[in-house]
Design brief:
With 194 residues, the protein is an alpha+beta fold. It has helices spanning 3-22, 27-34, 38-46, 53-63, 67-70, and strands at residues 86-87, 93-96, 105-111, 124-131, 134-138, 141-145, 150-154, 159-163, 169-176.
Length: 194
């Protein structure tokens, strides 16, 4: 094996450990998520076990990073993001604006009217309204955001967002793991003020 390949393989373990620690995960928590034993994960991180695709693919998914980020593959040379809109149910459109599902993912979304359904999951979200009015439900609170307004929240709190009326709403949507948050904070407008 050539020296460059050996160096790439040797760097995977420390990179896995850094990703896990950056996300605030224990080996036990990662073992539950991936289905691998704590011992296997520990040996991978310390370099005592060689990484295989069968191990790296689930770990990349668990850390929400592209596989080439785990192995430090060379960049393709083209920094442009080639937009590929995804059509979602009921007329909504999702446009990923980041190339890799790394620490923070960025989307432009056109949200069609739909019924509210509160959800919870790990992570942190930041929303910025580009057009239309966005209805945001956070637990027992309900807000209407207008163009130029932003909101951020912990996704562990029951939440839902969608158009505030029969018109579509267009937003920028940032989603990141727990602890990754934007700096801006929006407060609800006082009653009667836009």
């Amino acid at each position: 094996m050539d020296a460059e390949l050996e160096q790439i393989i040797d760097s995977i373990g420390p990179r896995l450990r850094r990703l896990r620690r950056d996300r605030g995960l224990t080996l036990e928590a990662l073992a539950i998520t991936t289905g691998f034993s704590v011992s296997t994960l520990s040996r991978l991180e310390s370099g005592k076990r060689r990484p295989t695709l069968e191990l790296l693919i689930p770990l990349a998914r668990a850390h929400r990073v592209a596989l080439d980020q785990l192995v430090a593959a060379p960049a393709s040379g083209d920094p442009r993001v080639h937009l590929q809109p995804l059509r979602k149910g009921h007329g909504s459109v999702l446009v990923p604006l980041t190339q890799y599902p790394g620490r923070v993912q960025v989307f432009k979304q056109v949200l069609a009217p739909r019924e509210p359904k509160l959800v919870t999951h790990e992570g942190y979200e930041w929303l910025y309204v580009l057009a239309g009015e966005l209805r945001l439900i956070l637990g027992q609170r309900e807000l209407v955001l207008r163009p130029g307004e932003a909101a951020e929240f912990d996704t562990g709190e029951p939440h839902w967002f969608g158009p505030a009326n029969a018109e579509a709403a267009e937003i920028l949507h940032l989603f990141g793991p727990q602890g990754d948050q934007a700096v801006l904070r929006a407060r609800p407008s006082p009653p009667g003020q836009p």
